């Protein structure tokens, strides 16, 4: 059965997932995590990519990234960062072979409707996995930087996040309350299935808009709950 092609859209955030080969651990020590993040910062800046959210799990990663004018830069980012991580781990462990599964998954995100929901989904991943009780307890996601504004300085300010409030303090207060609500079951399924299928995370209006922008038909099996403005 042929693999479904990724849809990459200019000037649009994308939810990216990449898993370890055969679902094996990618990150074991703190050095493994820090090395990945160092390369992620270097290459997202080199390629002009905006990073709106991230989470490094033991055997997979989540990124929310906007490529700007050149969507192919996302593939270059994954090639450079994942390639360096593979070489690093192989050297440390005295091994050879692939660290990652063959292809990363990507889902373009409808900015106004779903970007913050996707950030919440990504940052709560360790909570859903039972690794921590609260998002702020997990050191390898964007939540700590988003709430504290210090540390790695990886994050860029997404318009949807900046629109939560006029001040940094109240943006954090509102986003924290949003995360505390948790991810509704239907929303979680929609976001997760969209990225696993390389489909869009958005409503039908977003699908139509993307088709017009990139000039190709977008396959979309099912969709999320309609927004009020679609009823």
TrEMBL record:
Record-annotated Transposase IS200-like domain positions: 9-125
Highest taxon in the source lineage: Bacteria
SMART domains given in the database record: Y1_Tnp
One annotated GO biological process: DNA transposition
GO MF annotations in UniProt: DNA binding; transposase activity
Protein name: Transposase
